[in-house]
Amino acid sequence: MTTTVIDTAEFRKAMAEFPSGVTVVTALDEQGGLVGFTASAFSSLSLDPPLVLVCPALTSATYPHLVRGGRFAIHILASDQKDLAMAFASKGMDKVAALEWTLSDLGNPLLKGASCVLECSLWREYEGGDHAILVGEVLRIDRCESGVLLYHRWQMSNHAVPEVEIASA
Protein backbone atom coordinates (compact mmCIF):
# COMPACT_ATOMS: atom_id res chain seq x y z
CA MET A 1 0.00 0.00 0.00
CA THR A 2 1.37 3.40 -0.99
CA THR A 3 1.17 6.14 1.63
CA THR A 4 0.89 9.69 0.37
CA VAL A 5 1.90 12.51 2.67
CA ILE A 6 -0.80 15.17 2.70
CA ASP A 7 0.15 18.68 3.70
CA THR A 8 -1.83 19.61 6.85
CA ALA A 9 -2.47 23.18 5.67
CA GLU A 10 -3.73 21.96 2.30
CA PHE A 11 -6.00 19.39 3.95
CA ARG A 12 -7.43 22.11 6.21
CA LYS A 13 -8.13 24.30 3.16
CA ALA A 14 -9.83 21.41 1.39
CA MET A 15 -12.09 20.72 4.39
CA ALA A 16 -13.01 24.44 4.54
CA GLU A 17 -14.62 24.01 1.12
CA PHE A 18 -17.40 21.94 2.69
CA PRO A 19 -20.05 24.14 4.30
CA SER A 20 -21.40 22.82 7.57
CA GLY A 21 -23.72 23.79 10.34
CA VAL A 22 -22.31 25.15 13.58
CA THR A 23 -22.97 23.36 16.85
CA VAL A 24 -22.04 23.89 20.47
CA VAL A 25 -21.65 20.77 22.59
CA THR A 26 -22.20 21.25 26.31
CA ALA A 27 -21.68 19.10 29.38
CA LEU A 28 -21.06 19.52 33.09
CA ASP A 29 -17.69 19.49 34.80
CA GLU A 30 -17.07 17.75 38.14
CA GLN A 31 -18.30 20.81 40.06
CA GLY A 32 -21.52 21.06 38.04
CA GLY A 33 -20.29 23.97 35.94
CA LEU A 34 -20.84 24.52 32.23
CA VAL A 35 -18.19 23.30 29.78
CA GLY A 36 -18.40 23.06 26.03
CA PHE A 37 -16.88 23.58 22.62
CA THR A 38 -17.91 24.70 19.15
CA ALA A 39 -18.02 21.89 16.61
CA SER A 40 -18.63 21.65 12.90
CA ALA A 41 -17.63 17.96 12.98
CA PHE A 42 -21.15 16.73 13.69
CA SER A 43 -23.40 14.35 11.78
CA SER A 44 -26.42 12.13 12.01
CA LEU A 45 -25.49 8.46 12.05
CA SER A 46 -28.50 6.17 12.54
CA LEU A 47 -32.29 6.34 12.73
CA ASP A 48 -32.75 3.11 14.68
CA PRO A 49 -31.47 3.71 17.27
CA PRO A 50 -31.29 7.50 16.83
CA LEU A 51 -27.55 8.22 16.85
CA VAL A 52 -25.39 11.25 16.07
CA LEU A 53 -21.66 11.74 16.14
CA VAL A 54 -19.51 14.63 17.22
CA CYS A 55 -15.73 14.81 17.11
CA PRO A 56 -13.88 16.77 19.81
CA ALA A 57 -10.14 17.30 19.62
CA LEU A 58 -8.25 15.10 22.05
CA THR A 59 -6.73 18.31 23.43
CA SER A 60 -10.16 19.84 24.11
CA ALA A 61 -10.68 20.71 27.78
CA THR A 62 -14.31 19.56 27.37
CA TYR A 63 -13.55 16.12 25.94
CA PRO A 64 -12.80 14.37 29.28
CA HIS A 65 -16.04 15.74 30.77
CA LEU A 66 -18.10 14.33 27.88
CA VAL A 67 -16.69 10.86 28.44
CA ARG A 68 -16.72 10.99 32.25
CA GLY A 69 -20.27 12.33 32.47
CA GLY A 70 -21.61 10.07 29.75
CA ARG A 71 -24.11 12.69 28.57
CA PHE A 72 -24.10 15.92 26.62
CA ALA A 73 -26.27 18.32 24.65
CA ILE A 74 -25.63 19.33 21.05
CA HIS A 75 -26.99 22.76 20.15
CA ILE A 76 -27.49 23.45 16.43
CA LEU A 77 -26.98 27.18 16.51
CA ALA A 78 -29.52 29.66 15.20
CA SER A 79 -28.49 32.22 12.62
CA ASP A 80 -28.06 34.97 15.23
CA GLN A 81 -25.76 32.99 17.57
CA LYS A 82 -22.32 33.72 16.09
CA ASP A 83 -21.20 35.30 19.40
CA LEU A 84 -22.11 32.08 21.22
CA ALA A 85 -20.15 30.03 18.68
CA MET A 86 -17.13 32.28 19.12
CA ALA A 87 -17.34 32.12 22.93
CA PHE A 88 -17.25 28.32 22.91
CA ALA A 89 -14.54 28.26 20.22
CA SER A 90 -12.16 30.25 22.41
CA LYS A 91 -9.69 28.71 24.83
CA GLY A 92 -9.57 29.10 28.59
CA MET A 93 -11.54 28.14 31.66
CA ASP A 94 -13.57 31.36 31.89
CA LYS A 95 -14.75 31.46 28.28
CA VAL A 96 -18.37 30.71 29.19
CA ALA A 97 -18.50 31.84 32.83
CA ALA A 98 -20.94 34.69 32.14
CA LEU A 99 -23.32 32.74 29.89
CA GLU A 100 -26.82 31.88 31.05
CA TRP A 101 -27.91 28.27 30.92
CA THR A 102 -30.40 25.90 32.52
CA LEU A 103 -30.15 22.28 33.59
CA SER A 104 -32.47 19.89 31.77
CA ASP A 105 -34.37 17.02 33.38
CA LEU A 106 -31.76 14.72 31.83
CA GLY A 107 -28.92 16.58 33.55
CA ASN A 108 -27.57 18.48 30.53
CA PRO A 109 -26.70 22.18 30.47
CA LEU A 110 -28.91 23.88 27.89
CA LEU A 111 -28.36 27.21 26.14
CA LYS A 112 -31.24 29.42 25.03
CA GLY A 113 -32.09 30.24 21.44
CA ALA A 114 -30.63 27.28 19.52
CA SER A 115 -32.40 26.15 16.37
CA CYS A 116 -32.37 22.61 17.72
CA VAL A 117 -31.01 20.84 20.81
CA LEU A 118 -30.26 17.12 20.90
CA GLU A 119 -29.74 15.66 24.36
CA CYS A 120 -27.60 12.56 24.19
CA SER A 121 -26.11 9.78 26.24
CA LEU A 122 -22.67 8.54 25.22
CA TRP A 123 -23.25 5.37 23.20
CA ARG A 124 -19.71 4.64 21.92
CA GLU A 125 -16.28 6.26 21.66
CA TYR A 126 -13.77 5.63 18.88
CA GLU A 127 -10.27 6.81 18.01
CA GLY A 128 -10.03 9.28 15.14
CA GLY A 129 -6.45 10.54 14.79
CA ASP A 130 -6.10 13.75 16.80
CA HIS A 131 -9.85 13.73 17.52
CA ALA A 132 -12.22 11.37 19.28
CA ILE A 133 -15.38 10.15 17.59
CA LEU A 134 -18.18 10.23 20.12
CA VAL A 135 -21.47 8.59 19.20
CA GLY A 136 -24.42 9.84 21.16
CA GLU A 137 -27.82 8.21 21.45
CA VAL A 138 -30.43 10.95 21.12
CA LEU A 139 -32.77 10.89 24.13
CA ARG A 140 -34.60 14.19 23.63
CA ILE A 141 -35.05 16.72 20.82
CA ASP A 142 -36.12 20.34 21.17
CA ARG A 143 -36.64 22.18 17.86
CA CYS A 144 -37.74 25.66 16.88
CA GLU A 145 -38.34 27.14 13.46
CA SER A 146 -35.36 29.44 12.98
CA GLY A 147 -32.54 29.95 10.54
CA VAL A 148 -29.20 28.31 11.28
CA LEU A 149 -25.58 29.39 11.44
CA LEU A 150 -23.30 28.00 8.71
CA TYR A 151 -19.50 27.71 8.56
CA HIS A 152 -17.68 27.88 5.22
CA ARG A 153 -14.11 28.93 4.39
CA TRP A 154 -13.45 30.10 7.97
CA GLN A 155 -16.49 32.38 7.95
CA MET A 156 -19.82 32.06 9.75
CA SER A 157 -22.98 33.20 8.00
CA ASN A 158 -26.72 33.16 8.50
CA HIS A 159 -28.90 30.70 6.67
CA ALA A 160 -32.54 31.75 6.77
CA VAL A 161 -35.47 29.35 6.94
CA PRO A 162 -36.39 28.44 3.34
CA GLU A 163 -39.63 29.92 2.02
CA VAL A 164 -40.65 26.59 0.48
CA GLU A 165 -39.77 23.31 2.12
CA ILE A 166 -38.54 20.53 -0.13
CA ALA A 167 -40.69 17.39 0.10
CA SER A 168 -38.89 14.51 1.75
CA ALA A 169 -37.97 11.60 -0.48
UniProtKB/TrEMBL annotation:
SUPFAM superfamilies: FMN-binding split barrel. InterPro entries: Flavin_Rdtase-like_dom, NADH-dep_flavin_reductase, Split_barrel_FMN-bd. Keywords: Oxidoreductase. The keyword Disulfide bond does not apply. Gene3D superfamilies: Electron Transport, Fmn-binding Protein, Chain A. Pfam families: Flavin_Reduct. Residues 15-155 form the Flavin reductase like domain. Belongs to the non-flavoprotein flavin reductase family. This is Flavin reductase like domain-containing protein. It comes from Novosphingobium lindaniclasticum LE124. The lineage of its organism: Bacteria, Pseudomonadati, Pseudomonadota, Alphaproteobacteria, Sphingomonadales.
